[in-house]
Amino acid sequence: MSKRSSRSEPKSPSVPPSEGPFPRFVRRGKVKEVWQTAPDEVEFRFSDDISVFDKKIPSLIPHKGETLARTSAHWFEMCSRLGVKHHFLSLSAPNRMRVRRVEVRPDVRAFGPRPRNAFIPLEFVMRYYVAGSLWDRVKAGKVEPPELGFPTGKTVTYGEKLPEPMFEVTTKLEKVDRVLSPEEALRVGGLSQETFQEIREIILRIDEAIQKEISPRGLVHVDGKKEFAFGPDGEPMVVDTFGTGDEDRFWETVGMADGRFEEFSKEFVRQYYRQTGYHAKLMVAREAHQEEPPIPPLPPQLVEEVSRLYTHIYERLTGTPFRTLEASPSGSS
């Protein structure tokens, strides 16, 4: 994805071994709560909160949590069909997801030479088009055309398809994400070169399947981020959530040839705060290491629009009409 300014909390929590009682509250992030439901399982409880630029907006978006949970489940089920290892177990309620527990530590070396059930503290970003923060870097001259696979001297424009997918890795457990060199990524993630390449190939395989599914519905997968852990067998498995309007960027196919790129993500929420001037003030404060200004709530009409966007994204990505599901007893605490 274009590496988004928005960064959600780590979604694979550090949970000390416990015999109960369950469920047991672990922690609360920007957009969800994490509960331990068994010694080797946790449950993500997605809220209707929304965040951008590492800031939680003081507005609730109806149905957002449910659409994220159900869209994520859709893609994890696709991973099962592809034979891709992952942590997903089941939907325990419309906005709740049971997953295999993995441990999180800032220093992967603490897990020893052969980690098991251990979170890899990195975000893996795959880009297929020039958009988002990549476009910001291109405009600022921080990324040159040859770095993207284009010839020297080419004028790169917004929305161009990259000659080859661009693979970037950023930090995950730091306060603000930063792009890492391949060498840094191997060190921070405790990865071998072989495992690093394996993760890249897994992402390409998943994204190819996503594009194949959404193409008949008139969508293009522009970019996206994924997270991984070392599974029970020490092999990489997909964790977190992916393929939603929060982690990934999608465009309408119609209009692209004419230079029109209609977003199917929460990007227009970011654009709202750019247009109001809040983003500029926030960036000035961060650059100066000053206190950050509080983010204002969304106007009521925009809240309604964002809610419709999330349910529409769900329908277009999964091919299933959105109907609110009834909570099941297993999802109660």
Describe this structure in words.
It is a single chain. The protein has 333 residues and is of the alpha+beta class. The chain has one domain: ATP-grasp fold, B domain (D-amino Acid Aminotransferase, Chain A, domain 1), CATH 3.30.470.20. The protein has helices spanning 64-82, 132-139, 182-189, 193-214, 267-275, 278-287, 300-318; strands at 24-28, 32-38, 41-46, 49-52, 55-60, 88-93, 96-100, 118-119, 122-129, 161-171, 179-180, 219-230, 236-239, 248-252. Helix 1 runs parallel beside helix 7 (300-318). The two termini are 35 Å apart.
Features:
333 residues; alpha+beta; D-amino Acid Aminotransferase, Chain A, domain 1; 5-stranded antiparallel beta sheet; 29% helix; disordered N terminus; disordered C terminus
* CATH superfamily (homologous) name: ATP-grasp fold, B domain
In percent, how much strand structure appears in the residues? Answer: 15-25%
Number of strands: 14
- Main beta sheet, described? 7 strands, antiparallel
Anisotropy-based shape: globular
Mean residue pLDDT: 89
Q: Which stretches are poorly predicted, pLDDT < 50 over at least 5 residues?
A: 1-15, 328-333
CATH topology: D-amino Acid Aminotransferase, Chain A, domain 1
**Secondary-structure element order, N to C:** EEEEEHEEEEHEEHHEEEHHH
